[in-house]
Amino acid sequence: MKYGVVAFPSKKLQDLANAYRKRYDPHYAQITPHLTVKGVFEANDQEIEEVAKAIKEVTKKHTPFELNVSKVGTFAPITNTIYFKATLNDELAALHKDLNNDFFGEKPEFAFVPHVTIAQKLSSGEHDDIIGQLKMIGVDHTETIDRLHLTYQLEDGSWTVYETFRLDEDN
Amino acid sequence: MKYGVVAFPSKKLQDLANAYRKRYDPHYAQITPHLTVKGVFEANDQEIEEVAKAIKEVTKKHTPFELNVSKVGTFAPITNTIYFKATLNDELAALHKDLNNDFFGEKPEFAFVPHVTIAQKLSSGEHDDIIGQLKMIGVDHTETIDRLHLTYQLEDGSWTVYETFRLDEDN
Which residues does the entry assign to the active site, renumbered to this chain (chains A, B) (predicted)? Predict the structure, then answer.
């Protein structure tokens, strides 16, 4: 089964992201807006119990982090994905490190660019048409993220939450 | 903000429900297949923290319950909703009672008929066309539910998980 670890931002930021996703993201209906902290990995039913325990141990040791999105970015020309770029502060970097280095699943191929996707799978033409405008409109939002969610994917591509982990001592 | 408390069944049962929902449920994309334990209620940001604590207290006192779905039912003629009917065993009945009687939110208007919706908002014609066949195909699945999820609704109608509660002592 496919799993991933994400943070769901507040309703306010999710609604804002969805206003774009509705038009520009074919994965719009598969999961609500999120920031991925650990990308897709495979685990079976036995393994995931161990992984969930390990995630709990990690999240226990971390504190809530500030999610600050202040600009629109793009992964083009690698992929035509447009996103709200989140500031990579120390807390978030440490949390990502603990869930990806020497942890279950493969080590990420790319550097960690924390973000909330607002558009993807665009043609180059579509991407180039809207990126300027989206960058100009921009985004400016700060909130505290105090929990992560372990999610799994159904056959139709949609994601269900398996478990929530609070970022604090008593978890 | 609108909240609700649900149980998400295993991937197996969710995939089965989605095979029908894809065709017959316009809410298909808003939430993955679920069994509602506490229907929609309103709460503000302060209230929900208290409610979450209270749900935690309730779920701590309950143990995992058996989810057994063995027939297809319909709420027609009240609404043209078709569902996998879950057996109302003592554990599930007690859990529902503790989250709905003398608890935050209004007392439910109807008796508790635990179910996983597979079709809704059908016209009477559509409903009558498919109910016989769906009943004949039937369903037969049993699993253990060991957690509930507190969810909230975004402006576009989709639902995000706010928190997970394990049905066991150490929660």
Answer: 34, 115
pLDDT (tens digit per residue) in A128-161: 999 999 999 999 999 999 999 999 999 999 999 9
Given a cut of 90, whether residue B40 has pLDDT beyond it is: yes
The residue to which tokens 């009240």 are assigned:
B78
Task: Report the C-alpha gap between A97 and B141 in whole angstroms.
Answer: 40
Interatomic CA distance for residues A28 and A20, integer angstroms: 9
Residue A30: list chain B partners with CB under 8 A. Answer: 29
B152 vs A22: CB contact, 8 Å cut-off? Answer: no
Q: Which amino acid is at A155?
A: E
Q: How far apart are the first and last CA of chain A?
A: 26
Q: Which two tokens stand for residue B105?
A: 């939110």
Distance CA B54, CA B50 (A): 6
B45-61 helix and B90-100 helix, angle to the nearest 10 degrees = 150
According to DSSP, the residues that pair with B143 across neighbouring strands are: B67
pTM for the structure as a whole: 0.90
Domain ranges within chain A, ordered by starting residue:
2-166
B23's tokens: 């065709």
| ipTM, 2 dp | 0.85
The pLDDT tens digits of the residues spanning A75-100 come to 999 999 999 999 999 999 999 999 99
Q: Which of residues 113-152 of A touch B (CB under 8 A)?
A: 147, 149, 152
Q: Point out which residues pair with A68 in neighbouring strands.
A: A142
Identify the CA nearest to B140 among candidates B83, B34, B69. Answer: B69
Within 8 A by CB and 6+ apart from B105, the residues are B38, B39, B41, B42, B43
